[in-house]
Amino acid sequence: MSPRLRHLTTLENLPRATIERLLDRAEALRDACAHGTRKLDVLTGRTVLNLFFEPSTRTRTSFELAARRLGADVINFDIGFSSTSKGEELLDTLHTLEAMHLDAIIVRHKHSGTPEELVHHAMSGVSVINAGDGNRAHPTQGLLDALTIRQHRPDFENLTVVISGDIRHSRVARSDIHALTTLGVKEIRLCGPASLMPEPDEFPHVLHIDDFDQAIGGADAVIMLRLQKERMASTDLPDEAAYFSRYGLDQRRLALAAKGCLVMHPGPINRGIEIASDVADGAQSRILEQVGNGVFVRMAVLNEVLAR
Ligand code: NCD
Question: Per the structure, how many domains does the chain have?
Fold first, then answer.
């Protein structure tokens, strides 16, 4: 058996058995919930801190819900009203909060590597979970995307998955690539403007295809990404109408994919920029399923790092 995780900062180099254990546990929790179990008490008496230095709707709420459903107490640290706005340094914030006896810190930060910095400086006994750092990793999103695909298409070795849009600035794309590669997906294709693609040597095993019609041809799942303007130089900003016509997912393009192709997006979606409204809301859209799976994946991760 692969060893139990103390922290979760990235999916890179995580053994396949660990990823599968987390997905299996998330699935079991989803089944239990479907049969009426709303609350478990495996984390009663434990305290979880949501430490978000960047905005978030889905991730923060679902971590909070996940922790509460497992019986933990949750503190939401609101950066706008905190001493961070008075210039307190990250590690001083960490030690101040730790003095209140936390068991886990869920952190989102604009700087890549912040979760590892916290792991390095945190008191022993405190677990760190990455909820997104810079453009580097968003491990629970990678897991929930893998779970959503697995639910419909467990035959990863036959699958072609396209990730399209602003991949260069996307921590989601990186964690998706790590998860899907480890789980044995047959082919991963990246599509987007050259200025928004990763360096070719970052993922030598994935295909880079500039033409979206070609990239989506025969695909079993397509993961669309938002233009993450907050991480872009203004010179990299494409014209939005031109962008939609070249890289937007509309019904015509979706028809080029394999029958039943799963349409996915981590959110927030920008309708009419990377995805047409009727596709986002259409029969093949799995976007809200992803959100639902996010709660179960985060329950599984909290259970993994915190259960005694
Ligand atoms: C993503 C993120 O924050 O990285 N959102 C999310 O967590 N669901 C993607 C994004 O912001 O575009």
Answer: 2
The answer to whether the predicted template modeling score (pTM) of the entire model surpasses 0.85 is yes
Domain holding 131, by residue range, is 16-138+294-306
Residues 196, 241 share a domain: yes
| Nearest-atom index, ligand 1, CA of 266 | 8
Q: What pLDDT is recorded for position 78?
A: 74
Question: Do residues 59 and 141 touch, judged by C-beta distance below 8 A?
Answer: yes
Residues 6+ apart with CB under 8 A from 46: 71, 72, 73, 103, 104, 306
Answer yes or no: do 161 and 272 share one domain.
yes
Measure 267 CA to ligand 1 centroid, in angstroms: 6
Q: Residue 190: CB within 6 Å of ligand 1?
A: no
pLDDT digits (tens, 9 = 90+) for 108-135: 999 999 999 999 998 888 999 999 999 9
Report d(CA 245, CA 43) in Å as an integer: 49
On whether residue 27 sits in a domain, the answer given is yes
The CATH code of the domain that includes 44 is: 3.40.50.1370
Is the Cβ–Cβ distance between 114 and 137 less than 8 Å?
no
Residues pairing with 137 in the sheet: 133
Q: How many CB atoms lie within 10 A of CB 171?
A: 25
